[in-house]
Design goal:
The protein is of the alpha/beta class. It has five helices and five strands, in the order H-E-E-H-H-E-H-E-E-H. It has a five-stranded mixed sheet with strand order 2-1-3-4-5. Strand 1 and strand 2 form a beta hairpin. Helix 1 packs parallel to helix 5. The longest helix is centred in the last third of the chain and has 18 residues.
Length: 173
């Protein structure tokens, strides 16, 4: 059954609304988590991403591959494009990407190419993650840019969300 004919699965998870007064890694990851819930509600793989610069969110996105029929419409790629437009520069120097799952090869490459300062992800991906999971593009010695990486922020709630989504998908199929 194609995705446009299939009703979206009800999402049993609630959004989290942390205090705006404490803008730390958890605060921004909760924002990404909330976007992952939005993805689920649109029958997309629940991955969300936000980009922070100087304490402000300059981009926010979630996976939209199925709805756009675009294989590059990952949360990270969409957020990077928004951020570049926001700062009017493809170089996102000083910015941090928060994403609920470790970036894939395409997204990991894009984070390096965009010159982000830092990437923070919740759930590692030993199969396709390329910032420490299956491989680490950040360790390429010939690269002229390297990222600061923080792993495991809100790993449990983000992993629970992904696991529940795929369990329900398997039941549906």
């Amino acid at each position: 059954m194609s995705t446009e004919n299939r009703p979206s699965l009800p999402c049993p998870f609630e959004k989290n609304h942390p205090s705006q007064l404490r803008r730390d890694d958890e605060f921004y990851m909760w924002q990404a988590y909330n976007l992952a819930i939005d993805a689920w509600r649109e029958d997309e793989v629940p991955i969300g991403a936000v980009i922070e610069l100087n304490g402000e969110i300059i981009a926010a996105a979630y996976n939209q591959r199925d709805s756009t029929r675009d294989p590059t419409a990952h949360a990270e790629i969409l957020a990077l494009g928004q951020a570049a437009k926001t700062v009017d520069n493809w170089r996102l120097v000083g910015a941090t990407l928060y994403v609920t799952k470790e970036p894939c090869p395409m997204c990991s490459g894009a984070t390096l190419m965009s010159r982000l300062k830092r990437v923070v992800y919740a759930v590692p991906d030993p199969k396709m993650g390329c910032l420490g999971g299956a491989t680490d593009l950040n360790l390429l010695p010939q690269s002229n840019h390297h990222l600061e990486i923080t792993r495991g922020i809100l790993e449990k709630p983000c992993l629970d969300l992904l696991r529940a989504f795929f369990q329900l998908k398997r039941k549906e199929d």
